[in-house]
Amino acid sequence: MDDVLIASKTSNGQEIFLGGVNLTTKRNVQLGPGHVGYAHQNDIQMNIGEVWQLELGRFSEMEICAPHTENWNIMWKGLHTKTVPRTELRHFILNHLDAPYVQPSALFDGLVEFNENGKGFIEVEGSLPNYSVGLWRFHDPLHHDYDNNENEDGNYYHSESRDFRVKYTGVSNPERVLPPDTILRFFLSQPYEFMGKDVYWLLLSGWF
Asked: What pLDDT score was predicted for residue 60?
């Protein structure tokens, strides 16, 4: 059994994906349900800031390959042991994981490429990091905007220079500005086709 802090809840509109911090191993994790797959029903009662006793396992080691090495299934759910208040989450997380200051170009070992709109991605057939979730801090703020057209639909954050832009997929209400020093939780999507190649998109799941 591991103690796991729920650190993010993201949505694709139909299902919920849980991210966490394994307080036993001090590693980021992505938490799938107790069956094959990694998506939960929208009504799942596990919330950001809660610490749960979980037995984690995997149905098939063959499914675990770079960069998505943090995927685990909840084989058994024990007690909800505590809830860390939102105002204390930042300090709590920094006691267990590092969140270094970087430029956007340094995310995921510097392997992220950027298109003309500032959106980051990593090519599936290129060099890959051995992880798909990380915590970082920027020296500059990020500003919220909303894009809803035939090509894009969702919440985004961009740098003041607008040379960096990332989609926010979390279920918590967006904040207008994420100030410098905010802990940002980035992750890589599943593969999507883009301009004739498969890519992992850089996404933002939450902040502290």
From this structure: 66
Do residues 147 and 191 share a domain?
Answer: yes
Number of Cβ atoms within 10 Å of the Cβ of 113: 13
What pLDDT is stored for residue 153 in this prediction? 60
Q: Residue 90 domain-assigned?
A: no
Same domain for 116 and 63, yes or no, is no
Q: Residue 89 falls within a domain, yes or no?
A: no
- pTM for the model stands at 0.93
Percentage of residues in the chain having pLDDT higher than 90: 84
Among candidates 72, 93, 118, which has minimal Cα distance to 183? 93
User: Backbone phi, then psi, for 145, in 5-degree steps?
Assistant: -145, 165
The domain in which residue 60 lies consists of: 2-84
For residue 132, the Cα-to-chain-centroid distance in whole angstroms is 8
Same-domain pairing of 102 and 149:
yes
Give 96's contacts (C-beta < 8 A, 6+ positions apart): 5, 21, 23, 26
Residue 205: CB partners within 8 Å, gap ≥ 6? Answer: 8, 10, 19, 133, 168, 169, 170, 185, 186, 187
Are residue 127 and residue 197 in the same domain, yes or no? yes
108 and 48 inside one domain: no
CA–CA distance from 29 to each of 36, 71, 154, 164, 181 (Å)?
16, 6, 24, 26, 23
Read off the amino acid at residue 59: F
Cα–Cα nearest to 39, from 19, 53, 21, 22: 19
Closest among 37, 48, 72 to 58, alpha carbons compared: 72
